[in-house]
Amino acid sequence: MKIIMAVLDGGSNPIYDSMRHYWDLYRKTKEPTVFVYFLKFSLDKTMFIEDPKYYMDESTSTLYQYGEETVIPGILEKTQGAIEYFCKNTDFEYFYRTNMSSMFDFDTMIEYMENNPMDYGGKLENAFDEYEFASGSGYVLSRHACSLFLDHYGEMEREHDLFDDVATGKIMQKYVKMTYIPRITFSYTEDPEILDLLENDYRDIYHYRCHSDEHHYKTLHYMMKIYNKIYGSGSTV
Q: Which CATH class is domain 3-182?
């Protein structure tokens, strides 16, 4: 099994740089099963001489796409571009779209995905009491589902007022079965049972959404705790 994990990256700022630091500590630990790439836009035309759309920086595992960083429609465009690029340039079984403030237990993830084949999965959320979508903090598309994503991308583009993950779910649910994947989230929580997961040996769930709040006051603290819990102690930002 080969998994392409594509991490939304908004560029250089102190918070993102520290988040990227934690990803760099463990992102290569499960190659050649899990390959992690950061996704960025750039308006530097000198990067796109050989290919007008894409530039892969192998030294940092960063896929640059020509364009400007935006939320809508930028994240959806960035995701579509990454799926198109990897479908064209490599073989894989799964494409996993996530973000900088998430952490993953790769061993548990690999075991889960080997035992639970799926086309489209993630932490399912409800949109307007009309349909479900997989949260953009981390969703999985099979290679087959990636082809469907590209085939029906125009339908997603027309959902101008929806966030990327909501638009994706609205369209993808028409064509593939959706699978619920458990996730731990630390957002806006003081729940002692949730916070206790930072210290104990609970390893049944592999995706940890460490985003604490809109200002990321505790995000890096949670990322450090999860990294030390899964991969070993002694890390500092």
A: alpha beta
